Give the backbone structure.
Amino acid sequence: MDASLFPPTSVQTLAIEANKEVQGSLPDSITKLTIMLGVKGTVAVGVIPESVRSLTLTTQQPLAPGTIPKSVRSLTLYTLQPLAPGTIPQSVTKLSAPRFMNFTLGCIPTSITTLILTGCDQTEWLVGLTSLTALTLMDNNSATLPKLPTSVTLLHLGRYNFPLRAGVLPDTLTSLRLDTYDHDLQPRSLPSQLIRLELKTFNKLIDVANHLPPTLKYLKMDSFNMSLDLSSLPLVGLDLRAASWECKIPPTLTSLIYTNFHPNYNNYPPGLTKLGCNGSFLCRGYMFPPSITKLFITPTMLFGDHPCLSFCHGIKKLTTTHLGSILYNGCQAVNSNKYPITLRQVTVLCEVGCSEISLSQFIKYLMIPKHLSSLVAMEGKGEGEDKGKG
């Protein structure tokens, strides 16, 4: 394949798939490039222009040093071939290796600040990456974590599910994500300077005073479903999307995703601007605090006599709303005056209820105001109906 056949162009993003050698040179307007090579595919030195900043490269053949230009900052590399020192230039600061491959000392430039690895067993070279700040190990399934440079502040472990003891995690971490961890937390098992914590499968009792560091500002637990008092923490963001038990929230929150949140509370955090919650209460006329700018309603809402967006009327600063699922049941059309003048983006899923209604009819029913700049409307599946109708 002759890359020179591509005419001069202003195209900035390009994807190429080939099963033979790619020769010539690509246009120097390209800044984001994807090259997917088959079993026999190769790419010659000089094909990738110096304009490329983001490169995704899939190859089953060895890569020659110089193939990847020094302009590349972000590199996603799919290969099982060993890499010679210098193949990845010092210009690269973000490296993602989604395939199971082992690197050796010297083939990863010390310029790397963000590193994403899948199934890499030999990790003793990590400690030499003195600029590394963010590390993701997707398939690390060993109870012993590799020795990390002290520069690492963000750690994401995709398969780590061994009891954490004090000192296992480096105390330099400020952000930690554990995708499969589900063991009891121990005192001082989490780094003392932690600011952000994400636990995907965790659902154990938490002693806030002894288990969570007082520095924590962002907490996300996708599977947690127990009562919890977080009022003593200086949290700014909280995501408890699976929780149905009572949770005491701190007054410092600006972002809250909480299934069991109910607007009949009198203790709204005064600075709350983003809210995601269950919308089953809306037909009872409850209103949201006026500080909200982004509102996300998740489960199905059944509207009888109440226009489906009338609850937005009191939110004077609202710019974005996502209505996870509306079950249309023959309501009256929404008065466009009910939309806040600040509203710009609406995403809505329409489900057919007792009455027949097409997606186009539903959009007309919503009476979208002229000041809206973005509308995403999707048709769902109501009882006894098929998706994609209308």
Summary: Residues 1-76 form one domain.
